[in-house]
Amino acid sequence: MSGSIIVAAVVIAYMAFMLFIGWYSKHMISGNADFMVAGRRLGPILMAGTLAATEIGGGSSLGVVQQGMGKYGISAAWYVIAMGFAFVILTFLAPKFRASTVKTVPEYFRRRYGRLPGIITAIVMFLPLIGLTAGQMIASAVILSTMMGISFKVSVIAICVIVTIYSVMGGLWSVTLTDFVQVFFIVFGMAVALPYALNLAGGWDNVVANVPAESLDLFSGYSVIDVIALTVMYITTFTVGQEAVSRYYAARDGRTAQKGSVMAAIINFIYGFIPATLGVIVLALINMGIFDATQFQSVGSRYALPVLAVAAMPPLVCGILFAGVISATMSSASSDLLGAGSIFANDIYRQYIKTEATDEEVMKVAKIVMVLAGLLSLLVALFNTSSIITILMFSFSLRAAGAFFPYVIGLYWKGASLAGTMASLIAGTIVVVYLEQFTHGVIFGIKFGQPILPGLVVSFIAFIIFSKLMPPKEKTTELAYDEHES
C-alpha cells in the first residue's frame, strides 16, 4: 500500500469515527438541557478536553508553526500559552458561571437585566458564531485539500457535512466527546512530529546552529505587553463566547468547573511550545538547504507543517498528524455551530417568535439553525463571498467589548443595573467600531494591537457610572425566574 493511500485511510477513518460518536451521542439526548449543556453532567476530564479543543484551532497549530518559522521564533508559543493563563483566571469565575444555571450568555443578560439587553446580546453573539463557523469550516477544507491533494470543493463539502451531522445529532454531548478525541489527536499528532523533525535536521544542536539567536528568544516576537493583551482578549472572549463558556455551564458542579479549567490550562501550557518549536525546526531546515523555501510558495508558509510531515514521517504517523491538524479546526467549527443554534433557539425563537414552544420544539429549531449555518458556510466557501465573512467576523470584537463587565461584575455586584448594562454595550461597541473602521486601532497617536482593549476600558467606565446614576430598583445578584430553567 502506497504512503498516500495510508495517509488518506487514516484521515477517512478518523472522520468516520467522528460520525460514529455523533450517532452514539444521539442516544444520550433526552431533552433540551442535554442538547445545549450536556445535562450539566460533564466531569473535569471531559470538560478540560472540550475546552482545550474548542480554543485550539488552525491558528493555534498551523498558524503558530508559521509564526515560529518567521520573526516570532519560539516566542510564537505565547499565542497558545496566553489561553492557558486565561483558563487559570477563569477558574475563579467558574463556580459562578456554573451556579447561574443558564444555557446561554444572552439568557443570563435577560434574566439579570431585562429583555432589551437579552435580545441585543443574542443578536451580537449570534452573528459572530455564524462567521466563526464558516471561517473554521473553510480553514478545515483548505487544510484537507492541501494535505490530501484533493479539490477544495470536495474538501469543503466533506467537512461541512461531517461537522454538521455529528454536531446536530448529539448537541453538546457529541461535540464534547468528539472534542475529547480531537484534543488527543491534536496534541499527540503534533508531539509525535517533533522527534521526526529533529531527526531530519540532525538534532537540536544543528537547529540552534542554523537559526538566528532571536528565534530562540522567548520575547523576540511577543513582548510582555503583547502577552498581557492576548490574555485579556482571551479572558473576555472566553467569558462571553457561547462556544467556550457553555462548557462551564455544562460542568457537574462548581468544583468540577474549576478542575476542568485548570486542566485545560495545563494542556495549553504543554501544547504551546510544540508548534512553535516545529516552526523553528522548519526554518533551520530551510537554512540548511534540506528544504527549499519555494516549496511553500504553492501552498503558503502556513502549510509548512504538511510539507515537513511528508518529508520526515512515515505514512501512518503522517496520517495521524494530518487528522490532528484537521481536527483542530473541526472541533472549533462544531462548537461555534452549536453555539449559534443554541442562542437562536433559546434566546430569539423561544423569547420572541414562539414563547410557548416546548423543549422539543426549541431543540428542533436549534438543529435547523445549525444545518442552515452549515449550509451558509458551504455557500460562502464555494462562492468565495469573503465579504460576508468579513462582516460577520467584525462582530466578533463587538460581543466582548460591551458585554464582559456587565456579565462578570453582575455576578458579584448587586448595584449593577439595566442602565449601566446598556451604556456598557453601546459604549464598547462604538469604541470598537471607531477603532476598526476609522483609525485602524490608533487613539491619540497610540497604536492598540487589539481594539477590544480600549473598548473594555470605556465600557467599564460607562457601566459603573450609569449603574451608580440609575441604580436597579431591587439590588440583588439573583436571576429572574425562568419557567424553562433546567
TrEMBL record:
What residue intervals traverse the membrane? 6-24, 45-64, 76-95, 116-144, 150-173, 180-198, 218-241, 262-291, 303-326, 365-383, 416-435, 441-466
User: One GO molecular function term?
Assistant: transmembrane transporter activity
Subcellular location per the Swiss-Prot or TrEMBL entry: Membrane
- Main subcellular location: membrane
Cross-referenced InterPro entries: Na/Glc_symporter_sf, Na/solute_symporter, Sodium:Solute_Symporter
Q: Cellular component terms, GO, for this chain's entry?
A: plasma membrane
What protein family is recorded? Answer: Belongs to the sodium:solute symporter (SSF) (TC 2.A.21) family.
What is the protein's name according to its record? Sodium:solute symporter
